[in-house]
Amino acid sequence: MRQCTKVIHLKILPQHEGQRLDRYLADQRPELSRSRLQKLIAEGAVCINGKTTRSSYRVVAGDSITINLPPPIDSAINPEDIPLDIFFEDDHVLVLDKPVGMIVHPAGRVNSGTLVNALLSHCTHLSGINGVLRPGIVHRLDKDTSGLMVVAKSDAGHRGLAAQLEARAMERRYLALIWGGFEADEGRIEAPIGRHPKDRKRMAVSQKGRYAATRWKIKARYDFLSLLSLALETGRTHQIRVHLAHLNRPVFGDPLYGGREERLSGIAPLFRREATHLLAQTNRQMLHATQLTFVHPVTKKEMMFEAHPPEDMQKILAYSSSSSSGISTNSG
Question: Other CB atoms closer than 10 Å to residue 263's CB: what's the count?
């Protein structure tokens, strides 16, 4: 059954006077992204004292704001009985291990086989406050990145999880197999990320981009690869892949950010045959969301989950470990 429009009422307090409308709303309702709110304002779904306005409007103390959230689920999205690897589920949240190759939500011409299709079949209700086509989705993983995700089943769950993401209180750890390595055992990457100026499918480090920070730690060094543990401080699109590529250490197998055959000339000739062999066995970036920690938005209990890498990544790790000569290749 299609859900009804949800109405949110807010009153401007004196301490908020003078703020841009879109920024004020994003601060007050962290479950709604600023871009989502700007679209709602442009569509006339946000009213100030009963009248529509612009995102740039400066709020005044005493203003009454009404947000009319449209039904979140597009009728074209069909529930599909797709198996899910569920780690935890209650009335408010669901934690699962997303497989390689699954798109999180419908986009463009893709409206089947996504995580949302599977969730609509599994759940009788999903939080709809994140907008059309994305019921229950609080954060996402790239199609070919595997691992842990948390989904909101109730609006209370969605608000609480979104607030933790906004406050950077939700800890997300990844495993990445990268080309080369680092001399240091751990470090931090701080570089703004924005849309690539020439390729809209890619992101890039850009001074015009949004602040982004990633922490990394070496878990193992192999002949021409390294295994990293990474923690996100922010959640930009393709963040880990972009940050590592920026340091000339792209994720192994990454077709979008220079992690495939273009790297072969940069490693020692002794290892090129082995590297070519491993590349032929993978068609994706070797990146896995291995650990997820958050506070349950309703029970307030701290929850931590861990998922092992999928079979393709484990095979490459096992091969690299068994064949490694103990030489660490940090250049190239």
Answer: 22
